Amino acid sequence: MIYFLWSLERQTEIDGGGGHFFVLKIVFDSEEEAEQRQDGADTERSPSDEAQGHSLGPFSPPAYSEPAALLSSNRTSPSVDGIPASAAAVPGIGGGGAETRVSLDAIAAQLLRDQYILAALELHTELLEAGRELPRLRDYFSNPGNFERQSGTPPASLGFGTGYIASTQINALKYRAGSISTLDSLDFARYSDDGNRESDERLAECEIPSQERKNYKSSPEIQEPIRPLEKRALNFLVNEYLLKNEYKLTSITFSDENDDQDFELWDDVGLNIPKPPDLLQLYRNCGNSLPLHRETVDVAVSVDPNDLPGDYFTQESVQQTEELEYQISLLNSEKQSLAEQIKKLQRLIQTNYSLLVLTVPLSAFCSALWKAGLICRVIGNRRWRWLVKSCFVCLCRKLSPAFHQALLSFCQMSADSRLGSEVSRIADSEQSVMLMLGRCLPHIVPNVLLAKREELIPLILCTACLHPEPKERDQLLHILFNLIKRPDDEQRQMILTGCVAFAQHVGPTRVEAELLPQCWEQINHKYPERRLLVAEACGALAPYLPKEIRSSLVLSMLQQMLAEDKADMVREAVVKSLGIIMGYIDDPDKYSQGFELMLLSLGDPSERVVSATHQVFIPAFAAWCTELGNLQSQLIPSLLTRIEKLLKSEYGLDEHKLHMYLSALQSLIPSLFAVLLQNAPFTSRAKLQGDVPPIEVTRFPRPASPLQDVATIVGSREQLAVLLQLHDHQLQHEGTTGWDSLLWVVNQFLPQLIDIVGRFNVTSSTCVHEFCRFFWRLCRTFGKIFTNTKVKPQFQEILRLSEENVDASTGNGILTKATVPIYATGVLTCYNQEEDRKLLVGFLEDVMTTLSLSHAPLDSLKASFIELGANPVYHELLLTVLWYGVVHTSALVRCTAARMFELLVKGVNETLVAQRVVPALITLSSDPEISVRISTIPAFGTIMETVTQKELLERVKMQLASFLEDPQYQDQHSLHMEIIKTFGRVGPNAEPRFRDEFVLPHLHKLALCNNQQTVENKRLDIATQLFEAYSALSCCFISEELMVNHFLPGLRCLRTDMEQLSPEHEVILSSMIKECEIKVENKGIGEAQGSISIAASLVGEDAKTKFLSKMGQLTTSGAMLANVFQRKK
User: Fold this and answer.
1) CB contact set of 872 (below 8 Å; sequence gap of 6+)
2) Which of 36, 850, 975, 1025 falls between 20 and 30 A from 966, CA-CA?
3) Are 279 and 237 spatial neighbours (Cβ–Cβ below 8 Å)?
4) How far apart are CA 1090 and CA 1083, in angstroms?
């Protein structure tokens, strides 16, 4: 057995000096000797001997008792013929029932009070095995704090019997590894001089109940962690193995990773035992060690006292119990005496460390530590390191302190400067580290490269979080926001990530008090990147701010930046942060402010800001309105009211504002549909059970952002699939009764929209396009069933396409409005199945027929063709509609079809033009009605302007030539007007060969023929159209030959007409003719350039723009008009 004694001896002379010192004595007994000691403890010791105690040697004071006796009294459980002593203490059992028995709780209390921990543990274990449990013992042994010792003072039980052993093993039972960083808590037996650890392990095992020991050894999660000296020893053996087996690179890497250890010297490990065999030998012998030949059996006994005979407990057992109690009382008195001595020694140590160390000879002290293998551990402990340092400093030489100080002054050290002061003052706690960082960081940051300053962000944030001084924290956060002069995207993200981590760590109060002031200071910074950081920080910190600050200060900051900041990227970030704020705000009074912010964002001149408004702000604001319940009652009606006011404006329709409001409504469609689903009669039945049919990919239009995805608004795609299934079933089979949100859409929202559509001018292509997009998204979002049953019937009721409703004199007024193109493009094209296409074809045919027969304007039909023609998918469908008009019996319908070809040709590919368009136009050009033939001329001209196929161009050219050269058309004034107008429109953009060989010669002929016209009105109409055509063609490059043969002669003929009909035009024509003649005369310039530009001399602005602007100034005096074409000097 192993016993530890810690005694203090007074010696008069040790190596020439005296003083106090500690002696650690380790005594090893064999198991047989231990048993003999235990057996003889009761027989050989008399009460007087017990009082005096037995001496263990010259180092033990007389008052010290035999440790073996202590061990015996603690380890031996009194029993009667194998029955635990605890059973004997139970009242009413045995023959001595009349005597007063001490309760088990009293025994346990006495054991704990006298610090007989091991005896108490064994009593606790035996009670547990007997099926009983004392609350006092259970609470004591389940509290790890009862077995922890304060560092810095030796444990009271270290050298006095089993206290140390019991404490060690209690800690082992609780699976707590003992501290090895201080001298106080070292396991001395583990690193003893002889290196014999087996007895220590046997002692530890025998002190632990078998089942507890079994559980402890078999559980890998509760193994004792590796100790530093064990780690160093294993490192040495591993490195030795790597070198012997030629793993040199690995050995070098391993040595680098353990640079605090010298692998050349075993003594550097710190263990005072010989070097063990190498790793291979240890592996081979690990299973060959012979265990102790001891037969052990784990036995659990549980006895019911009622089953025992009445006289089982004899008088002998009572006497034995009394003897044991007497021994306990003696040991308690001995313990008190020892405890007083320990307290005296502790006071001595605590009050006079220097005296203790100074009186210990250096050689003896260090030698003892080295032999015990404890020198490294002593130095590792702060308190004992100071003692060893003092010993080395003070005892090596007998020098005066003044001499030491003067000598050390020659060292090159500087503690006077700020940096020297910081270097000489090493932090010894977390708080001192924070204080040091707070002092040093302001001096470090300016000296770090700008490109690498983001590496300081973690250091700054951690210091700002943990620093105790508010002023220093404010300075550190100021450094954080000013860390980089113009932070890029990645640097801003790092700073924002740090701010969020700071906010999560410190809480809302400190975020408000410390972070927000930094944002406020940067709100007007001259660099946009810094203001952008503020805008993004407001959004990122929104979840961590107090709600009052979110809806007041932060909202005001962002509103100011949105209204005043000039940088687009800053306002874009502001809008996104406002959207985040809307996701957390809960003050209903802020609704009006949010609505104004939405309008302000939508009206921003930057497209980036408007896009961010639709992607982030409007969905977040709509979600808040949904929670407030005013999406349908306030938000959407407010936008519709503003659109109606635009239509009533006396200054005309503001298309920009209409686009702004309508786009906002379009962004609200997903939220509106989500409200319908979440407030439907079937919502309570929406359960995620069984197989749910997946949602078609094309079921919803592509959202502008994830926030506009209906699945995101509802919660998940699976939940949306269930709701859609119930939605469709409700509309098809159960109706809309009780579905208030849907009834509002059908009875209020849609009628108001259709009324607005019928009130603005159809010629506004921008408005038509915006409303078409809105209705298309509305119908695609709400679904096909809703579109067919709720939307289409309302449009059809308004349009009234039946023939009996056609008024031949005035036409059907609604058919001339924007309702036609919006219904055709926005509603009928939502679904592209065969039945939908047939419905669209029939509607367009009916509209074309109705408008033609009623002589109504064709603007609504043209708008429909323009919108549909922009999508190549509908080209075949539109050609089908036009062919219906080509073969129609009415000449009016055929004329309309001919004019619609002009709109369609520009977007159709040349194959369709050759196969479908040109044959239809050729058919119409030979129509019996001259009006139908004339209607084909604009379409032929557009083909000449857009098509490049030579064969196709020749066919069109021949058809136009037949119109000009056929004698039957010589007196067709309308035909000539249409041809001249077409030449002026397509001439500048047509193929140069077609312009030079066909357009210019025929214009010359038409101008010459117009001189012979006797009807003044017709002559003026032709002359005016010729003037427009020549004005457009004058900006083209014309060869000298054409200029002399056709262009100048045509202008002279036209001037002849204008002299009589319009003198103002005559002045302009004279200037044009004079300029052309000058160009012709200047042959050198003409040959150098290859061609002449009539407007080439108009320097300083685009020639065509300036020339056409002068053409419009026909009210100007003749003298000024004459100067238009004069060369600039």
Assistant:
1) 907, 909
2) 1025
3) yes
4) 10
CA distance 1104 to 1094: 10
Element (H, E) at 594: helix 591-602
Query: CA nearest 875: which of 828, 920, 909?
Result: 909
Mean pLDDT value across residues 641-661: 88
Neighbour-count burial of 925, counting CB atoms closer than 10 A to its CB (0-12 exposed, 13-18 middle, 19+ buried): buried
* Residues of the chain by 3-state class (helix, strand, coil), percent to 5: 70, 5, 30
Task: Sort residue 116 into left (φ over 0), alpha (ψ -120 to 50) or beta.
Answer: beta
Lowest mean pLDDT across 784-788, 881-885, 1039-1043: 1039-1043
CA distances from 923 to 464, 724, 958, 960 (A): 85, 51, 14, 14
pLDDT at 626: 93
* Residue environment code for 433-456, b if the CB has 16+ CB neighbours within 10 A, otherwise e: ebbebbeebeeebeeeeeeebbeb
Cross-strand pairs, 14? 17
User: For residue 636, which of 611, 589, 673, 608 has the smallest C-alpha distance?
Assistant: 673
Q: Which two tokens stand for residue 1056?
A: 């002849």
Two tokens at 563?
């209204």
Beta-ladder partners of 23: 7
Q: How far is Cα 566 from Cα 871, in angstroms, rounded to an integer?
A: 38
Cα(737)–Cα(748) distance, integer angstroms: 16
Q: Look up the pTM and report it.
A: 0.60
Q: Which residue has the higher pLDDT, 1113 or 648?
A: 648
User: If pLDDT is split at 50, 70 and 90, which confidence band does 605 have?
Assistant: very high
- The CA distance from 259 to 158, in Å, is 35
Per DSSP, the three-state class of 12 is strand
104: its two tokens: 């088990």
Nearest CA-CA partner of 114 in 41, 50, 163? 163
Q: What is the DSSP letter of 450?
A: G
Would you place residue 993 in the very low, low, confident or very high pLDDT band (cuts 50, 70, 90)?
confident
Contact call for residues 1051 and 1030 (beta carbons, < 8 A): yes
Single-letter code of the amino acid located at 204:
A
pLDDT attached to residue 9: 33
Among the ranges given (117-131, 608-622, 716-730, 1111-1125), the one the predictor scored with the smallest mean pLDDT: 1111-1125
CA–CA separation, 1023 vs 1058, rounded Å? 7
Alpha-carbon distance 115 to 138, whole Å?
16
Q: How far apart are CA 591 and CA 626, in angstroms?
A: 12
State the residue for tokens 């231990």: 34
How far, in Å, CA of 497 to CA of 540, rounded?
A: 8
How do residues 529-567 score in pLDDT, each as one tens digit?
Answer: 999 999 999 999 999 999 888 888 899 999 999 999 999
Q: pLDDT by residue (tens digit) across 912-957? A: 888 889 999 999 988 888 999 999 999 998 888 888 888 888 888 8
Residue owning tokens 């070292």: 186
Residues belonging to the chain: 1129
DSSP state letters, 347-380: HHHHH-HHHHHHTS-HHHHHHHHHHTT-HHHHHH
| Residue 995 neighbours by CB under 8 Å, 6+ apart | 987, 1033, 1036
Type and span of the H or E element at 434: helix 430-444
- What percent of the chain has pLDDT above 90? 23
Q: In terms of DSSP bridges, do strands 79-80 and 2-14 run parallel, antiparallel, or are they unpaired?
A: unpaired
- CA distances in angstroms from 785 to 114, 694, 724, 779, listed in the order given: 88, 18, 11, 9
CA–CA gap between residue 47 and residue 720 (Å, rounded) = 90
Q: Which residue, chain included where needed, has tokens 């020639």? A: 1103
pLDDT, the chain, mean: 75
Q: Which two tokens stand for residue 24?
A: 């650690």
